[in-house]
Amino acid sequence: MRVQIKYIKGEEVKFISHRDLIRAFGRAIRRAEIPIAYSQGFNPRMKISWGQALKVGATSSGETAELLLALPLSPSEVMARLNHQLPKGLAVIGANLL
Amino acid sequence: MRELIEAILPTVLRPSRYIGNEINAVHKEWHDQLKVAIAYPDLYEIGMSNLAVQILYHILNARADVIAERVFAPWGDMEAALTANRLPLFTLESWKPLNEFNLIGFSLGYELNYTNVVNMLKLGRIPLHRTEREETDPLIFAGGPSLFNPEPVIDLFDFIVIGEAEEAIVEIIEAAKQTTRKEKLEALSKIEGVFVPGHSVTVTKRHIKDLSSVPYPTQPIIPFTEPVHDRAVIEIMRGCKWGCKFCQAGWTTRPVREKKLETLIDQAEEIVKKTGYEELSLISLSSSDHSKIEELAKELATRNEKRRVNIALPSMRTNSFSVKLAHEVARVRSSSITIAPETGSQRLRDYIGKKMTEENIMESVQAVFASGIEAVKLYFMIGLPTETEEDLLEIGQLARKIFEVGRCHTRRVRVTVNLSTFIPKPHTPFQWERQITINETLQKQRLIKESIRQKFIDVRWHQAEASFLEGVFSRGDARLLPVIEKAWELGARLDAWSEFFDFDRWLKAFADCGIDPTDYLRQRSKDEPLPWDYIDSGVSKEQLIASTN
């Protein structure tokens, strides 16, 4: 199942690069034990599609990403678990099934 | 100050090096707590991979009466931006200037970072020498492996800590709560493992009796920007029983102490859950010596299989048991394996006390190639005592033998030969030996390079000039601080980075101070006093002398 999340990138993290943001989300997903799907192969990656990169230094209250889950989990649960694990400045403000 | 910092951050490379807010970072409100800055004199990416930084941060911030924040050496662009905007060096957590802290502790593990200490104190607007500091200035201290010979930098510090700091740091905090600077220094001088210049005469290394009982950072800070070691780390033991004559860590971290199996499993479980890291590395100086290593590695592999966490076992003895165990517990096959034969010949390997036989090496690489790994990295030292040309030529012969074994398994075998210059280190049986000159280093590097003409064997080496400087400062004395300051004035900082390192600057600094650096490389006689004689590492000179043969 696919879950779209809407998240904010706030003051505390506005200077982290898009690549670092992806790493921070990845670790939060693992800590939150969200059943994310992984790609096959030698170097499996989380199946997440990211929106366009924000400029370093910019904040945003409406970034999106799509998570592919290997097992079902309600969007509200995805949001709650992620918000428990994300660093200050990153927060999920909406999640829905695609 | 905040607005100014905000304005410069978008203009520097990787601004997240300077801003904190990472997962597990501790941001406290400033009240009347004791403010401690943990200073690491190299880039964020290096310092955040240093276990001591994470351990001390964790211990200090667990206390309500302390605020501990981090500060690292700024990259060139950041230093320029700070200077241009007349901003002081500030900590990551609260963006406060260094001089607003009560204590600033540097972790020193590499002599080429000494100019960064000077630079950070200058940028932090703190009087450089301990004798220039006044009542309201912070107390500046240092710990770490380099302090086993503190002489070249001792005048920068109000006190130093020798050995392991988990317990001492708590006593330091209490001592620092005294009212006057004089009272603080007096209290500090009474702490085991602490040396206060002007108060103390000698100092004995501090070590933890029971490793399982001291706090361990199972919720380490997880950097946003990628650090050099991007993984969870569990330290499984300290000390090393093998006694290689060149190895400072092996002699100064004695005695050997293991962490209990149950403690290790608990800490590993916690760190994996609290970080989300994809890899868990079990570290020590020689991990295969842990009496429960097989049980531990297999248990952790089982527990972490579903979580997609790779178990890595670096620093294992070179033998087929180690190779098989590492292969068995790893989820992700490593692309290469590293072996440190140290020398080409068995004769020299025996002489330096490296208890590894060519048979061990060959059975290991056999197992490595059989497991599907195609690359082997080999580490050797040049300039060892008693070394002959024949010993050096045997480096190439060993590399070729390993290459041939690989050829039986794969066409794509790659062997890398890494050469470092032997640096005699204080508190080792080789502390009296001569270090080879830059020219000798270059000649030996060339000899080896020319003896290995295979296309698939790559020869690399550590820059001769950097090893030279490391050698000078490793066995240096107090006359070297003016040289460090002079080099800093001439622009030296971030000397561990080839893009910044400029040897000519150092030569000029030595010349200006009237010091011949090559004198520090000479052989010492066993009865001459050594600059680090007042540091008791736990191993006496008599024991070291007895271990030289």
From TrEMBL, chain A:
Top-rank taxon, per record: Bacteria
The DUF2344 domain, residue ranges: 2-95
InterPro entries cross-referenced by the UniProt entry: DUF2344
Pfam families per record: DUF2344
Protein name: DUF2344 domain-containing protein
Natural source organism: candidate division WOR-1 bacterium RIFOXYC12_FULL_54_18
Automatic annotation (TrEMBL), chain B:
GO MF term list: catalytic activity; iron-sulfur cluster binding
Source species, domain of life: Bacteria
Domain (Radical SAM core): residue spans on this chain: 226-458
Xref: InterPro entries: Elp3/MiaA/NifB-like_rSAM, Radical_SAM_N2, rSAM, rSAM_horseshoe, rSAM_sf
SMART domains reported for this sequence: Elp3 (SM00729)
Protein name, per record: Radical SAM core domain-containing protein
Lineage, opening ranks: Bacteria, Bacillati, Saganbacteria
